[in-house]
From TrEMBL:
<feature type="transmembrane region" description="Helical">
    <location>
        <begin position="56"/>
        <end position="81"/>
    </location>
</feature>
<dbReference type="InterPro" id="IPR002528">
    <property type="entry name" value="MATE_fam"/>
</dbReference>
<dbReference type="GO" id="GO:1990961">
    <property type="term" value="P:xenobiotic detoxification by transmembrane export across the plasma membrane"/>
</dbReference>
<feature type="transmembrane region" description="Helical">
    <location>
        <begin position="458"/>
        <end position="478"/>
    </location>
</feature>
<feature type="transmembrane region" description="Helical">
    <location>
        <begin position="87"/>
        <end position="113"/>
    </location>
</feature>
<dbReference type="GO" id="GO:0042910">
    <property type="term" value="F:xenobiotic transmembrane transporter activity"/>
</dbReference>
<feature type="transmembrane region" description="Helical">
    <location>
        <begin position="430"/>
        <end position="452"/>
    </location>
</feature>
<keyword id="KW-1133">Transmembrane helix</keyword>
<feature type="transmembrane region" description="Helical">
    <location>
        <begin position="316"/>
        <end position="335"/>
    </location>
</feature>
<feature type="transmembrane region" description="Helical">
    <location>
        <begin position="134"/>
        <end position="155"/>
    </location>
</feature>
<dbReference type="Pfam" id="PF01554">
    <property type="entry name" value="MatE"/>
</dbReference>
<dbReference type="GO" id="GO:0016020">
    <property type="term" value="C:membrane"/>
</dbReference>
<comment type="similarity">
    <text>Belongs to the multi antimicrobial extrusion (MATE) (TC 2.A.66.1) family.</text>
</comment>
<feature type="transmembrane region" description="Helical">
    <location>
        <begin position="235"/>
        <end position="257"/>
    </location>
</feature>
<feature type="transmembrane region" description="Helical">
    <location>
        <begin position="201"/>
        <end position="223"/>
    </location>
</feature>
<feature type="transmembrane region" description="Helical">
    <location>
        <begin position="390"/>
        <end position="409"/>
    </location>
</feature>
<keyword id="KW-0812">Transmembrane</keyword>
Length: 532
């Protein structure tokens, strides 16, 4: 039957209502209707870049604050170690270095495998994948913690086998034995951070870290000074800190309802299947992180082989603490860029992903220039906060400008790693780190430090060569990225392409039904809109 109003249909008086000829329905806008306006012109590229800067900084700045809070935590721990005496400080430092090399770097690197999956899944609105990735990564880290825990448990005979002092080995073993529960907590902490960060939830991370840091000082005082638990008390305080952060994050996720759209917090059978995509990303990410972490530990070992090992090792400790402080800023920027790139690729918006990567690189260049200026400006006063030894002061002042140049390259390089993580290409990052740090940087560092008068400065010039190579390769890779192809890869990684195929099939079926109904009525309807 004809459903047009009498004023709009010439065939309304057809008594049968069976219209066998095409007809036209003319829609005349009412007198009070607003005219159709032309579309607004697209925003300029500069305006879009400014919007992207705001988005990246909105993610990165809370992460900077979180990093600074965690840095304060480590300072508190070192202060309480120092109060226990030189042996406790040396043994604790040895244990922390060993834990970083064999445990924390591995868990941190493996957890990075879920970052591109979560970021792209959130952009593609495949929210259940975030929950699955969280559960799978927690299980992966827990299983990886077992051999690490076994290694830590038997650390004392291993250190003695390597020629360490017996008392020093005993203190380090005590610290690591007390830190064993931390492996379980780290297995939850890293995935929870990435799970929230992929959804652009960063302020709660900062709030939870701040609350835990506020409790860290009294907990250390209680365990070390009141209960007199010694070096074990310092280790347990660090474990307690991570327990508090994990607890606060879980409480936030539960009461905020973030978990509802992502499949909840309880494990299901589905998280025990389809691990290949996670492992393909987690293993290269782990290798990439470990290669970079291990480099600095190797630098400490090499500094002990130089002309004045006591001064060079002490200066190396000060400089590594300095790089750790500066690194908070590019790493936070890297997290923000990774999230933005992943979200946009998941949403199948390659142009926006490209813009996020470009804006992130430019921001990192400005950050690198700031880091270089800072390191150069404080070269004559920085080491005085740690020591008054003339030899250490001289070495540190001579190397700080080189360190600044290293950070000038490290900032874009770290952001480039974030771009590769966000676009699910950790293998490229691992290959770049391997070739830059160990094929270029290591030979240069060893050659200049041991076989030329440069001595301690030669080690850092080797790092500078590694950073220069790394940033050059990163920029080439990012510049040559086919963002359309990466967006297509993202659709396959998140399963969005399969979902779209199903949706297209449903639409095709619905259209076929509609066409059948039209054929039955043999009616062709044409709508013409007349603009005022």
């Amino acid at each position: 039957m004809c459903k047009a109003s009498p004023c709009k249909c010439d065939h309304h008086d057809d008594p049968t209502g069976l219209l066998t000829h095409p007809f036209v329905v003319v829609e005349v806008p009412s007198p009070g209707a607003h005219p159709v306006l032309p579309a607004k012109p697209l925003a300029s590229e500069k305006g879009l870049a400014f919007v992207e800067v705001k988005a990246i900084l909105g993610l990165s700045l809370p992460m900077v604050l979180t990093g600074l809070l965690l840095y304060c935590r480590s300072i508190v721990s070192m202060l309480f170690l120092g109060r226990l005496g030189d042996l406790a400080l040396a043994g604790g430092s040895l244990a922390i270095g060993f834990a970083n090399i064999t445990g924390y770097s591995v868990l941190s690197g493996l957890a990075m495998g879920m970052e591109p999956i979560c970021g792209q899944a959130f952009g593609a609105r495949r929210y259940h994948l975030l929950g699955l990735s969280l559960h799978r990564t927690v299980l992966l880290l827990l299983s990886s913690s077992l051999p690490i825990a076994l290694l830590w448990y038997y650390i004392r005979p291993l250190l003695l086998l390597l020629g360490q002092d017996a008392d020093l080995a005993a203190v380090a073993a005590s610290y690591l034995h007390a830190s064993l529960p931390d492996l379980v907590l780290q297995s939850f902490l890293h995935p929870l951070r990435i799970y929230l960060r992929a959804q652009s939830i960063t302020l709660p991370l900062t709030a939870c870290a701040g609350l835990a840091v506020a409790l860290h000082l009294p907990i250390n005082y209680f365990l070390v000074s009141v209960l007199r638990l010694g070096i074990g008390g310092v280790a347990w305080a660090s474990v307690w800190f991570n327990f508090n952060v994990v607890l606060f994050l879980i409480l936030y996720i539960y009461f905020s309802g973030v978990h509802r759209d992502t499949g909840g917090l309880s494990l299901g059978k589905e998280c025990l299947r389809d691990w290949r995509s996670l492992l393909d990303l987690a293993l290269p990410s782990c290798i990439s992180v470990c290669l970079e972490w291990w480099w600095y530990e190797i630098m400490v070992i090499l500094s002990g082989l130089l002309l004045n090992p006591q001064a060079t090792v002490a200066s190396m400790g000060i400089l590594i603490q300095t790089t750790s402080l500066i690194y908070i800023f590019p790493s936070s920027l890297s997290f923000g860029v990774s999230t933005r790139v992943g979200n946009e690729l998941g949403a199948n918006r390659p142009d926006r992903a490209r813009r996020a990567a470009a804006v992130g690189i430019w921001c990192s260049a400005a950050l690198g220039l700031t880091a270089f200026s800072f390191a150069t400006a404080v070269r004559n006063v920085w080491a005085r906060m740690f020591t008054g030894d003339a030899a250490i002061l001289e070495l540190t002042a001579a190397v700080l400008p080189i360190l600044g140049l290293c950070e000038f390259g490290n900032c874009p390089q770290t952001t480039g790693c974030g771009v590769l993580r966000g676009s699910a290409r950790p293998k490229l990052g691992a290959n770049i780190n391997l070739s830059s740090f160990y094929a270029v940087g290591m030979p240069v560092a060893v050659g200049l430090a041991l076989w030329t008068p440069l001595d301690f400065r030669g080690l850092w010039l080797g790092l500078l060569a590694a950073q220069a190579t790394c940033v050059a390769l990163m920029l080439v890779v990012v510049n040559r990225t086919d963002w359309t192809a990466q967006a297509e890869r993202s659709q396959h990684l998140t399963g969005a392409s399969a979902a779209k195929d199903d949706e297209a099939e449903n639409k095709t079926a619905a259209k076929a039904v509609d066409d059948t109904e039209v054929d039955e009525t043999n009616c062709l309807l044409v709508t013409v809109k007349i603009k005022q």
